[in-house]
Write a structure and sequence with these properties.
Layout: E1 4-7, H1 12-22, E2 28-31, H2 48-63, E3 67-76, H3 97-108, E4 117-128, E5 131-144, E6 160-162, E7 167-168, H4 174-180, H5 182-199
Parallel strand pairs: 1-2, 1-3
Antiparallel strand pairs: 3-4, 4-5, 5-6, 6-7
Helix pairs in contact: 4-5
């Protein structure tokens, strides 16, 4: 029987990415949209790991299924690591990419290009109804541009330049982004543990 793994997000961009990255494992990958009664988890942790753990454990107990959840965001060195865990709601409204991007550009106005170093960071947590099984992290280093390039991805992707291949996440095709992104690296680190969980 195929094992069910719930992908703990209502963000359709994240859901598509995680499904694509884990597609070869042969799991029954279900998004939270398959569970209309799933509660909203308040992401009040001070770290990506704390938020990923909270989401995975709460939904695993509530749904009675294994859940993989992530928390991820952008850390800009010139801004002291902000927006960090507040990336998706930095301008106040959850998931307002345009407002978040506008605030980022405003705060980086006047910052010289060499000082615009940044990274996307992601922590993945797997939980079952019995509790957290494990967490794994991944990061992708880059620089923030002064204007958007590309229309792919979501969030700050069109501003985030990856030195190799020299394009923003907004310019990369989905399959290439899914090989080098922070989320793909966290899931790659988690792959062995996921296989152990599947066998167990």
């Amino acid at each position: 029987m195929t094992r069910v793994l719930v992908i703990g997000t209502k963000n359709q961009h994240k859901l598509r990415e995680i499904r694509a990255i884990l597609a070869d494992l042969g799991l029954d990958l279900r998004g939270l949209d398959a569970y209309p009664g799933a509660s909203k988890v308040i992401e009040d942790g001070e770290t990506f790991e704390a938020n990923a753990r909270k989401k995975a454990t709460q939904w695993a107990r509530e749904l009675g299924e294994a859940v993989v959840a992530d928390d991820s965001g952008l850390e800009v060195d010139a801004l002291g690591g902000r927006p960090g865990v507040y990336s998706s709601r930095w301008a106040g409204e959850e998931g307002n990419d345009a407002a978040n991007t506008a605030r980022l550009l405003a705060e980086l106005a006047g910052v010289a290009e060499p000082k615009r170093t940044a990274r996307y960071r992601c922590v993945i947590a797997l939980a079952t109804p019995a509790g957290v099984e494990f967490t794994c992290a991944g990061a992708c280093e880059g620089r923030m541009l002064a204007e958007a390039r590309g229309t792919n991805g979501f969030g700050y992707d069109p501003l985030f330049l990856v030195p190799e291949p020299g394009k923003t996440f907004g310019e990369l095709p989905e399959d290439l982004k899914n090989r080098i992104s922070h989320r793909s690296r966290a899931l790659a680190a988690a792959r062995g543990r996921l296989l152990e969980w599947m066998r167990g």
